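Protein modeling request. Please complete all fields; requests missing the sequence field cannot be processed.
Requester role: graduate student
Desired output: 3D structure, token encoding
Chains: 1
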Amino acid sequence: MASGFSPLLRLIRAGRPSVPALIAATLAAAAGVACSLVFPLLTRNVVDTAGSGGLISETMSFLIAALLGATLFNALSSLLLARIGHNIVANLRQRLSDKMLRLTIPAFDREGSGERVSRIMRDCESISSLTTTQAVNLITGTMMLIGVAAVLYSLDSALTMTLLGALLAAFAVLVPLSMLLDGLSRRTQDEAARLSGLLTQVFSEIRLVKAFTAEQRESRRIGKALENLRRLGMRSSTINTTLEPVIQLAMTAAIVTILIYGASRVSVGTMSVGTLTAFILSILNVISPLMQLTMFMAELQRAKGASARIAVLLDETEEEYDAADPAPARAGELRFENVSFAYQAHDARQQPVLKDLSLNFAPGATTALVGPSGSGKSTILSLIERFYLPVSGRITLNGTDIARIPLQDWRRMIGYVPQNAPVMPGSVRDNITYGLAGRFTDDQIRDAADRADALSFIEALPRGLDTNLIEQGNNLSGGQRQRIAIARMFLRDPRILILDEATSALDGETERQVKASLDRLRAGRTNIVVAHRLSTVFDADLIYFLESGRVSGSGTHSDLVATHEFYARLVERQSHAASLPAAALPTPLSA
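Delivered output (591 residues):
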């Protein structure tokens, strides 16, 4: 993990704080400091003039003006800083969000999305606070201390040296305590990120939790994470709450000492009452900047920890969108040439999922992938989508390695209908047109929905195409979600069509209707079908049977029934579980 101040400075620049606004906020704060410094001196004049029976009206006017000036300038500075801070947070969150959208799928395999969301929400605020409020507090606090020191010295040098001794003693305690916050701040932010990830995971799968009555189990997991966060928070709070009393104790001791010493000076006539009053008021001006400097040190440690984690995220590998070759102008032959793949391929103990695999997906034809769970079917689809890269071998389209085709161009060529069609937040219209370039009229959208046999239920929804879908599309049935995904494919018009059990959630009648639509959609495309239900691939032009990452048989349905014992057994087993067309049930091999 990056350390030091370089990640922090890098992120401050990335947040693009407005330099003119920062200067204006600093100048306003400096004006407030000047008014605060003048206040004790004007008070001295008021006290001394009142003690001698003179007129104080003019001095009182300046005194009130100084008090109001300090209040107004400080309010203006705070307002400007708030605006800058919100802009920085928005810029950093946008930068991180864009980065996360460009990360590779393996990056999300290593760390949960909830922890990454915590980086966007929590860590950015620490950097914003340091850049704006705490940075200006550092400047104004330093200015205030220098100004107060000059005022105090001009009032009485002996009392000033007494005060300085008390402050040095306080700082001898404060600096080590503030340094302890560094490690605690990083651990607290890491624990908060883990808690965020856990909560995101649990609440996104709340139906699973409730279906298996796992509320108490998840409550214990959350409680354990909360307890870890509480302990770290208490340690930080203990240090933070120690800092303020130390300052107050030092200042109280200094004031008491100065009162005693100053009173003795007043009694012998070497100091006026006004001077002593101004000195004590000036001491009160020291408390605020000391607290500001202390808070700056604490916030600096938090921001360093946050920036180090964000810097790691920003340095993660992005997907390569640019490539050497343009996208092919037409659909073509997609081939796997001796492809091997293993998840976490850097780990020698990780067994390969695909082993020297060669496949051919012909244009205008339907190629099916079947086999038991864990045989590599989903991994093949992930490699086609370029979510992962082969460890060895290559995947080509018309002889061109697909890794040389710009990634976005490549993915726009693919239409993917997964087994459990996901639904994004938004309306039915938004979901049918999701990720598609260009604008579509309502007539085009309705036509696509009609061809996917989805129009009838869409028109029955409260607002038709404008009906908002709730989280994960839970106000739709599984078959309805699937048909919306199929309607999207009619609009997308892909060159390569991937159907991952695309009709598995449909009833028999609807499946036949949608299958007819998909047959029209397949014309002239490279079609890939993944199926567990063999009834969906009987008419495939070519079927690959996968076992343990290798092809153990290939051919048409009839070929495999005649030559592949495992496939034949599956056909026979599934024929007893569902009513299949008689023509689809050739006599299987004997076991």
